[in-house]
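[Automated response] Your request has been received and processed.

Submitted sequence:
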Amino acid sequence: MKIVADKVRFAYGQTQVLREVSVEVREGEVLGIIGPNGSGKSTLLRCMGGIYVPAGGEVRIDGARLPSMARRARAKQIGYVPQTSGEEQPFTVLDLVLMGRRPHVSWGLGSRDVAIAAAVLGELGMTHLAGRYLNELSGGQRQKAHIARALAQEPAILLLDEPTSALDIRHQLEVLEFVRRAARRDGRTIVLVMHELSIAARYSDRLALLSDGRLHAAGTPEEVLTEQALQEVYGVEAQVRPGEYGLEVVPIRPLHEPEAAVGGAAR
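Generated structure:
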């Protein structure tokens, strides 16, 4: 499925957060949304997931306007994983993952739902944690459990807000390799909000770079992650060089005070 954000605007009160941002993500593609803190990345993702209603513009899925879709149909098509929270309900990991099957069941969960949940936990290396309660897990383990819940939903479109922020490097790679396989193997449309630029370049087919609520650039990692763009948007001098596993971004020094680079009050 293709998802399109067309000239999306959003504000928190009087504060403009997104200013006519347009992005398009095709079936089987991974789009990485990057930008400084406060540039509007998470807000854009929530608008694309129907969690926030844009003040202007619209979001479309295969040409259908998102608000026109029934809630259940939307839940079948879009999986959303927010940034992790420190508080968790008293559920086991398996309970949480099975919640991802809710849009697909009319009465009770069946053997197929359990099999799908078990398969996702296996692919993420979490089978041994299935019976553990969420509040017994580390932050990284809880984050992987929420990703597993979204994957068990079998959505055509998967939206992930900083999915690796609480993970160590091994688990970051496990999650991102799995996400990329989901795009390649299953034809899922993936949108990731990312901070680590080299990792974003490695695992994204295209990048959308936001700055102060506006789309600064969109395209392949090579087109977007230029040394000039890093100066203009992040306010840093950096080297960008090709590597064996994709672009490598090496920050060197700030060019001015961080407050000047962030700009605005977007989220």
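Summary generated for your ticket: Residues 169-186 form the longest helix (18 residues). The CA atoms of residues 22 and 112 lie 38 Å apart.
If you did not submit this request, please reply to this message.
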